[in-house]
Write a structure and sequence with these properties.
The chain is of the alpha/beta class and 308 residues long. The chain has 2 domains: 3-205, Rossmann fold; 210-294, Methionyl-tRNA Fmet Formyltransferase, Chain A, domain 2, CATH 3.10.25.10. Helices cover 27% and strands 26% of the residues. It has a 7-stranded mixed sheet with strand order 5-2-1-6-7-9-10, sandwiched between helices. Helix 1 runs parallel beside helix 2. The chain is elongated and about 65 Å long.
């Protein structure tokens, strides 16, 4: 079976590794263009591109796929590459571009998506983050036949994964990536029956905005704790202490009460309901580390309010 693969981040790269390990022929990979990254903002290839090049697979990096859109020349070149690859199926995982109908229709067996949620819950761009933020007890991976809608296609295989009490997006991501790799191999080796998604329980996982990092101390301690785990490794939690920026990475429930944002004991901050103990912090230009270490020499004063 000839499999064209479309994906960009590490989540997708794990699936590509699984397909290659299972012996599938992958003549072409589509991935996002190289982006500036790191302190030097040098162009960096995506995780998928790096894996593809290491395996000797041809790579296409169109900026868009609409034949009549802004990047029509890129789309036309990508179409020629796809036609030449003669795919039986396209596997898509966190690619980052919307596939127009001509792409969906091109592979003989259509396009399959590896989506990191239990559809129809958390359709959209950030299903792992939103599941943790919402306090879901479990999530998973759905192998879906792609259509023109946003994660609305028929479902084939579903794998479930409990969300642990200490899970961050980073830790849950790694387990779901491995699960997605196993499921897509199974779906190609033993094609399942695809059934329409239920009409009940639809929610949307909107893309994470950096502005969401600002901590609202009026929220409950439980909400703030979940939000910080959901936003690790990006964008983390942000507040101010004494007029200076302070990054908050990890907290734990604590005893006590006070005005939201008020420091009520060393490293303990009152919330709208309950309180949290600051466990891991980061000052501008510094490294993230234990709160006691980061605050050494400049501790938070009992009574001051964070975020003011």
């Amino acid at each position: 079976m000839r499999v064209v693969f479309a994906g960009t981040p590490e989540f997708a790269a794990v699936a590509l590794d699984a397909l290659l390990a299972a012996g599938f022929e992958v003549p072409l990979v589509l991935t996002q263009p190289d982006r500036p990254a790191g302190r030097g903002m040098k162009l960096q290839a995506s995780a998928v591109k790096q894996r593809a090049l290491a395996a000797g697979i041809a790579v296409a990096q169109p900026q868009g796929l609409k034949l009549d859109g802004k990047y029509a020349a890129d789309a036309a070149a990508a179409r020629e590459s796809l036609l030449a690859a003669q795919p039986d199926v396209m596997v898509v995982a966190a690619y980052g571009l919307i596939l127009p109908q001509w792409v969906l229709d091109l592979p003989k067996l259509g396009c399959l998506n590896i989506h990191a949620s239990l559809l129809p819950r958390w359709r959209g761009a950030a299903p792992i983050h939103r599941a943790i933020e919402a306090g879901d007890a479990e999530t998973g991976v759905t192998i879906m036949q792609m259509d023109a809608g946003l994660d609305t296609g028929a479902m084939g295989l579903v794998g479930r994964e409990p969300i642990r009490r200490d899970d961050t997006t980073a830790t849950l991501h790694d387990r779901l990536a491995a699960l997605g790799g196993r499921l897509i191999v199974q779906a190609l080796q033993q094609p399942p029956v695809y059934v329409p998604q239920p009409m009940e329980g639809i929610t949307y996982a909107h893309k994470i905005d950096k502005a969401e990092s600002q901590i609202d101390w009026r929220q409950s301690a439980a909400e703030i704790e979940r939000r910080l785990r959901a936003f690790d490794p990006f964008p983390g939690g942000s507040t101010t202490a004494g007029g200076e920026a302070l990054k908050v990475w990890r907290v734990a429930p604590a005893e006590g009460a006070g005005e939201p944002g008020q420091v009520i004991a060393p490293e303990v901050v009152a919330c709208g309901r309950g309180a949290v103990r600051l466990l891991e912090l980061q000052r501008p230009g510094g490294r993230r580390g234990p709160a006691t270490q980061v605050l050494q020499g400049k501790p938070l004063a009992v009574g001051e309010r964070l975020g003011d």
